[in-house]
From TrEMBL, chains A, B, C:
Organism: Arenimonas composti TR7-09 = DSM 18010
Keywords: Cell membrane, Membrane, Transmembrane, Transmembrane helix
Topological relation to the membrane, as annotated: Multi-pass membrane protein
Record carries keyword Coiled coil: no
Pfam assignment, any one: Gly_transporter
Location of this chain's protein in the cell: Cell membrane
Record-given protein name: Glycine transporter domain-containing protein
Domain (Glycine transporter) ranges: 5-78, 90-162
Classification via InterPro entries: Gly_transporter
GO cellular component, one term: plasma membrane
Keyword Transmembrane set for record: yes
Organism superkingdom: Bacteria
Transmembrane segments: 6-23, 30-49, 61-78, 90-109, 115-135, 147-165, 171-187
C-alpha cells in the first residue's frame, strides 16, 4: 500500500517532467499528455517488454491515470510548476530511486541474471526521460546532465548484490533507494557531473 | 475480406505519408521504404508487443508488402503524390479510423482493461506517424497538428464503451470508425486544433 | 565457439561506432556507454522482441559487457579510434554480415515466414545504428549513406532462399555473410549509394 503510494508519487513526478518539456516545446494538449505518459511509463514498459511480462502500465490503469493528471496540471499551471522546480526535482529523485530499485528487483524475480538485472533497473529509472526527450527530437538529458543514471546504477547494484549474497530483499531495497536518492540530491546541489571525453566544457 | 481490404488501404495510406516524409528529407530508396514501413506498421507492432502477441506485420506478409509498394510509388512519383494530398489525407483518415477501432477491439480481445484498450487503440492509430517523425529527427506532427489523436481517441472510446455495456461489437466498430473519420475530416477542413498551454500561436 | 567469438567481434565493432558518435556529440561517460550498448544490441533486441523471445543481450551478459568495453575504449582513446576508422569499418562490415545472416536464421527458426525473416535479418543488422542515431537526434545514417542496408538485405535473402529450397543452412549462412561483407566493402571503397528521389545531390 505504502509502496504503491510512493510508486504513484514517482510516476506523478516523472510525468510532470514530461509535461513541462512538452509545454516548453509548445505541444498541444494531447502532446502534453503523451509526453507525461511517456516520461512516466516508458522505462517500466521497456523493462517489462524485455522481461516478456505484461507492462504494469497496461495492467494497472492507475499509472496512466496518474500520468494524465500530472499532464493536466502542467497544462493548466505550467508557470507555477516551473517555479516549483525544486520540489519537482525532489519527487523526481524519489521516483528514480524507487524505479531503479523496484526495476532491478522485478528483473531478478523474473529470472534475469545479475548483470541484466542491474541494466534493467537503470533502464526502468532512465527510460522515461529518454523517451520524453526523443519525442521532442532532443538528445536525452540523462546522457549529458549532472549525475543521474549513476544514481540509478548505484541503487540497482545494491539490490542485485544483496540478492547475490542472499541478504533479505526489503532492507536491501531501502538501502538501495536511499543511496540512489542521496546521490541524486548531492549531484543536484553540487552540480556533480560525469567526465566528457577530451575534457573541457 | 472487406475488412482486410480496407485495412490494407489504410496501411497503404499510412505508408504513403511515411514515403513522402522520407522523400522530403532526401533519404535514399532504402530510407523511403523504411519510413513507409515504419509509418504503416509501427502503431500495430507497438500495440501487439505490449499485448504480448505476435505482431500482425510479422505474421502476415501482405502488410509490409503493401507498405513497400506505397514506398515505391512515393519514390517514383513523389511529385504526383504530393499533389494528391487531399485524397491521401482521406485515405489516411480511413486508416486512422480503422486502426483505432480495430486496435481497441484487439486489446479488449486479448484481455486488456477498458482504460488500456482505449490507450492501445489510440497508439495503433498514431504510433506509425510518431515512428515516422522520430526517424527524421522531427517532433511528431501528431503532438502538434490539428485534431488527429483525439479522433482516434473518440473512435476507440466508442468501441470500449460499447463492450463495457455488452453492446454488439460490429455496429459499435462501425460507429466508432465513422465518428473518428468524420472528426478527422472536419478537423482538416476547418483547421480544428487543440489548445497550447499559455495560448497564442 | 568460433561463431560466438565472431559475434562478439561484431558486437564490439558496432559498439565502437556508438561510442564514437557519443564522443562526437560530447555526451558524458554514461552517455558513451549507453550509445555503445544501444548500437551493439538494439537490432538484436528489436528482432527478439518481435519474435517474442528473451533478447540475447538480456540472457547473455557477454554482449553488454563487450559493448561496455568498447564504450570505455572510445571514451579513453577516442582520437586513436577515430584514426582507426578503416579497421573499424571492416569489423563493422563483419558485424553487419553476421547479424543479418544470424538474424534471418533465428527468425526462421522461431517460425517467421520467409518475408518476415528477411525483414528481421535486415533489422538485426541495422537496428543498432538506427537507435544510436535517434538517441543523438540525428536522421539515421543507414537511411542516407552509401549502400549498407542493401548488403544486409542480400545476406538475409541468401539465408531465406536457401531455407526455402531446403539447402543446408551452414554453407548458406557462410555464402550470405560473405556476400553481405563483400557488398559492404565494395560500397565503402567505391562510394556506392542508392538513388535519391528526384536525383541530384
Amino acid at each position: 500500500m505504502l509502496l504503491t503510494l510512493t510508486d504513484l508519487i514517482g510516476t506523478f513526478a516523472f510525468a510532470l517532467s514530461g509535461g513541462l518539456v512538452a509545454v516548453r516545446h509548445r505541444l498541444d494538449l494531447f502532446g502534453v499528455l503523451v509526453l507525461a505518459i511517456a516520461a512516466a511509463v516508458a522505462g517500466g514498459v521497456l523493462r517489462d517488454v524485455l522481461l516478456d511480462v505484461t507492462p504494469a502500465a497496461i495492467a494497472d490503469w492507475r499509472y496512466p491515470v496518474t500520468a494524465i493528471a500530472a499532464g493536466l496540471v502542467c497544462f493548466a499551471w505550467h508557470e507555477r510548476v516551473e517555479r516549483l522546480r525544486n520540489p519537482v526535482q525532489l519527487f523526481d529523485a524519489v521516483g528514480l530511486a524507487l524505479f531503479a530499485v523496484l526495476g532491478a528487483g522485478k528483473a531478478l524475480q523474473f529470472g534475469a541474471g545479475p548483470f541484466a538485472a542491474v541494466m534493467l533497473g537503470v533502464l526502468s529509472g532512465i527510460g522515461g526521460g529518454i523517451a520524453r526527450d526523443v519525442l521532442v527530437a532532443q538528445i536525452p538529458a540523462v546522457l549529458q546532465r549532472e549525475l543521474y543514471a549513476v544514481a540509478a546504477l548505484a541503487g540497482a547494484l545494491v539490490v542485485v548484490i544483496a540478492a547475490a549474497f542472499d541478504l533479505p530483499a526489503t532492507p536491501a531495497a531501502f538501502a538501495g533507494a536511499g543511496l540512489c536518492f542521496l546521490l541524486r540530491l548531492a549531484a543536484i546541489r553540487r552540480g556533480w557531473r560525469l567526465p566528457v571525453a577530451g575534457g573541457g566544457e
